[in-house]
Amino acid sequence: AVVLKQLPSGLLLVTGPYKINGVPLRRVDQAYVIATSTSVELPALPDTLTDALFKRKAKPTKNEKEMFVENTAEEPKISAEKIALQKEDDALVVPADKRVDMLQTNLRSENTLRKGQYPHEMKF
């Protein structure tokens, strides 16, 4: 994944990009990121990429009678705004990834640590 920026909450905004490896825009804690020496020159990102974009709607509370009624609520769907924002972000990130040698191939591959591999001893 490509780190786009650090949000005011302290979390990192990352993307796959979705077009390359299916990772959508999401917030990730810094503890779950392994930094590499690879750097990508990105153009200016939209100002709409903030913590407010990821805020969920509050669930309505149920009274005692509603607690035992079968749940008929629909699953939450991804809004058209988020889909458009993902496509806009991919349009900025994918061309920048193409300029770095072998980056798209590395982003498509599955990266996992195996027995005896330690991230602090690796050179990326």
Q: For the CA atoms, what is the radius of gyration?
A: 19 Å
Reading side by side through the largest sheet, how are the strands ordered?
Answer: 1-2-3
Mean pLDDT: 86
Beta strand % = 5-15%
Stretches where pLDDT is under 50 for at least 5 consecutive residues are none
What pattern of helices and strands is seen along the backbone? EEHEHHH
**Number of DSSP-assigned strands:** 3
Helix content: 25-40%
Characterization of the model:
- The mean pLDDT is 86.
- The chain is an alpha+beta fold and 124 residues long.
- The longest helix has 19 residues, at 80-98.
- The protein has a three-stranded antiparallel beta sheet.
- The chain has four helices and three strands.
- The chain starts with a strand and ends in a 16-residue tail after the last helix.
- The protein has helices at 18-21, 64-67, 80-98, 103-108, and strands at residues 2-6, 12-15, 26-28.
